[in-house]
Design a protein that fits this description.
- The protein is α/β, with parallel strands linked by helices.
- Helices cover about 35% and strands about 15% of the residues.
- It is built from 11 helices and 5 strands; from the N terminus they run E-E-E-H-H-H-E-H-H-E-H-H-H-H-H-H.
- It has a 5-stranded mixed β-sheet with strand order 3-2-1-4-5, with helices on both faces.
- A hairpin with a 5-residue loop joins strand 2 and strand 3.
- The radius of gyration is 19 Å and the shape is globular.
Length: about 250
């Protein structure tokens, strides 16, 4: 009997805002990526989406992004009735994934996921594809042109299933370049930024800026900026890698 393949389930949420419990989920979408007998990862199944009643009005600001209205979710089920079966497809799931997973993790708590590990495809893209002109889900879609992505199935953007479907193609390619354990390790750390994002050094490779400029980033309020600056400082002292390294040079 063929064993049941392991999956990483990609999750995407549409919500009333970004800060639970004041804000709540209005839609969850998912798409599985499964380990194949030949050792490669591929998308599996049709995925899906479910509307969720947030028990509060959807602000016009967020309605303008995802176009889900109060009347669309008035008769939908509650989050606690919807979440567990989607987030915990036992026994196949080895991890959950999302693009900028910290957002989804706020709503998909450990109690709902049974303590699942998360892969952040945004953080992994910073490591694996540092030459991308940007790292949003849609920028990576059009810059990378992932094999097999059906354009219409990935639309409209900013709805839960299409976004999960697009993210799943990034995840598939990341899993075929690095192990699950490596992607989780990168995801557990702050983002390692390939280029300076602001200021006089904006757009430069971190290895190109002066020690004086680098020192200014070590106390930045953004943890991704601080982490990147600290790692570049360690590289200059002989203790680490940073910047536009090849996949072979990354911290494997």
């Amino acid at each position: 009997m063929r064993p049941t393949p392991s999956i990483v389930r990609v999750i995407d949420l549409e919500t009333t805002g970004s800060a639970p419990p004041a804000h709540q989920v209005v839609e969850i979408g998912w798409q599985d990526v499964a380990l194949q007998p030949d050792g490669r990862w591929e998308l599996e199944g049709e995925g899906g989406h479910v509307l969720v009643n947030p028990n509060r009005a959807i602000p016009p600001l967020t309605m303008a992004v995802h176009h889900i209205r109060d009347e669309d979710v008035a008769d939908a089920r509650q989050w606690h009735d919807v979440a567990r079966p989607i987030l915990d497809p036992y026994p196949r799931r080895v991890a959950l994934a999302a693009h900028r997973a910290a957002f989804e993790e706020q709503f998909c708590t450990a109690a709902l996921t049974r303590g699942a590990k998360w892969i952040c495809t945004w953080k992994c893209a910073l490591r694996l594809w540092p030459d991308s002109p940007g790292f949003s889900n849609q920028m990576l879609r059009y810059w990378r042109k992932p094999a097999g992505l059906v354009h219409e199935r990935g639309l409209p953007a900013h709805r839960a299933f299409p976004d999960a479907y697009v993210t799943a193609h990034h995840l598939r390619d990341q899993l075929n370049e690095a192990s699950v354990a490596q992607l989780i390790e990168w995801s557990d750390a702050p983002g390692l930024l390939p280029r300076v994002r602001f200021g006089a050094e904006r757009g430069k490779d971190w290895r190109e800026i002066t020690n004086e400029s680098l020192a200014g980033f070590l106390t930045d309020r953004d943890p991704d900026v601080r982490f990147t600056a600290e790692t570049e400082l360690a590289r200059r002292r002989g203790g680490g890698e940073i910047g536009r390294a090849s996949a072979q040079e990354l911290l494997l």
